[in-house]
Amino acid sequence: MVRITRVYTGGGDEGQTSLVDGSRRMKSDPRFETVGTCDELNSILGCVLMEVKRMPSHDDGGDRTNVQRVELVVVEALGRIQHELFDLGAELACPPEDVPEYMTLIGKEQSELLVEEMDAWLEDLEPLTSFILPTGSPPVATMHVGRCIARRLERSMVQLLESEGKDAIRPTALVYINRLSDWLFVMGRWVSEMLGEDETLWLPLGKRSSERGVADRVNKMRSNDDDFSDL
Fold first, then answer.
1. Which residue numbers in the chain have pLDDT < 50?
2. Structurally, what CATH architecture does the domain formed by 16-205 represent?
């Protein structure tokens, strides 16, 4: 059982800190970059939970049943993922050969569960006809940030493999993060569907109308303000 009586130790004041096995490395070490990105991903998922929990469950028409469904599913799913990311962060904080025997590691079953959940969500979704822009309601927009951080974590893990060798990270851990980014994307689409939101499709430059910018609009607003002040 972990028992933390204080957070500060002073041991990292000179730019070094310890891995799980007790070895010391500079905080700029690629392994710490990977651990930190895993922690960052976990933190943004906490923001997703915050946004989901403060969605209004009522409107002028009465109960918003789908909001309750979204909260039930997302809170349960992300609660599990946050624990798994903490497990993964602990694993990444030491070379595989030095992982303590007591540590339970992310396995194939965790990745398979992500696929099972994606398949369930996709049953409610129409196939995409274009890429979608990373926007939407607060929970969905924050999920897009999460999937981007998951991809950055994946890149960081690959960079660690390149710097320390093919045994630096278990293949199963890399597969899990690859699935997790897709999982966040599909979950975001499912939440949009449940909330009745329209997805914003990407339109290639050649198919968009002439882009004039917003300068004219701003100037008209200013002109209207001047006209109002003259009344």
1. 4, 62
2. Up-down Bundle (1.20)
